[in-house]
Amino acid sequence: MAGTDQTQTPRTGGPAIILIEPQMGENIGTAARAMLNCGLTDLRLVRPRDGWPNPRAVPTASGADAVLDQVRVFERTEDAIAGLTAVYATTARLRDQLKPVVTPRRAAEEMRAHHAVGTNCGILFGPERAGMTNDDVALADAVVNVPLNPAFSSLNLAQAVLLVSYEWFTAGDATPERQLSYEDDTPPATKDQLVNMFEHLEQALDARGFFRVPEKRPSMQRNIRAFLQRAQLSTQEVRTLHGIIVALSGLRKESGGE
User: Fold this and answer.
1) Are 258 and 206 in contact (CB under 8 A)?
2) 255 Cβ neighbours under 8 A, 6+ residues apart
3) How do the domains of the chain map onto residue ranges?
4) CA distance linking residue 224 with residue 241, whole number of Å
5) Three-state SS across the chain?
6) 16-171 classified as CATH 3.30.230.10
7) Global pTM value
8) 191-254 maps to which CATH number?
9) pLDDT tens digits for 194-246?
């Protein structure tokens, strides 16, 4: 299916996702999909309205069997958080309780710190319609609040799970924020390939009389080499530039130039 690669090593583990009284199997399935997208596999359900297992969760999970196959069901939230050291509650309402309020990004950083020393964390998500009760919120160490459009901040269950799970994933991911994607058969050009191309280009420019002022030649050469190096050329692109230089040199000869 799209977006899957069975040759890759899957990422698993992470904080427990605890859904309190989820109403529809479809919502559980989409939440499981969001979890596995971000390498989370510990899904716990508290009093799911339609029971568990629920066949309606399977299609919307879109293959997230690694999550669905190990779902655990509990009667009480207190039982679902057993064994956890730090618990976060996702809610927009504090309900007169004095608790730290953190963004998903800050929560992810804190949970990564917990996991680094071997302690387990969990994130509570309330029912789709009513949200968590005061008693459930009281079990949490901190509240996670997602900064969104204040005039329209409503999220469905899977969206909320994905936002928090994504911040967890990226907090431990080393993917560069920006990079060039080279094909296997066209790796980045080496310095000797670039220098060879620079010299080829400069010879062609010499033949056209481009470097008219001798004292400016060194700085012009450096500028040309600098902007071409910024392009982060591939080996194929260097070969293409060689071809362009040859073609332009040929046009000059065919036109009867000196």
Assistant:
1) no
2) none
3) 16-171, 191-254
4) 13
5) CCCCCCCCCCCCCCCEEEEECCCCHHHHHHHHHHHHHCCCCCEEEECCCCCCCCCCHHHHHCCCHHHHCCCEEECCHHHHCCCCCEEEEECCCCCCCCCCEECHHHHHHHHHHHHHCCCCEEEEECCCCCCCCHHHHHCCCEEECCCCCCCCCCCCHHHHHHHHHHHHHHHCCCCCCCCCCCCCCCCECCHHHHHHHHHHHHHHHHHCCCCCCHHHHHHHHHHHHHHHHHCCCEHHHHHHHHHHHHHHHHHHHHCCCC
6) no
7) 0.76
8) 1.10.8
9) 999 999 999 999 998 999 999 999 999 999 999 999 999 999 999 999 999 99
Task: Single out the residue of 13, 47, 8, 45 nearest to residue 29, CA to CA.
Answer: 45
CA distance 238 to 241: 5
Bond before 53 cis per omega within 30 degrees: yes
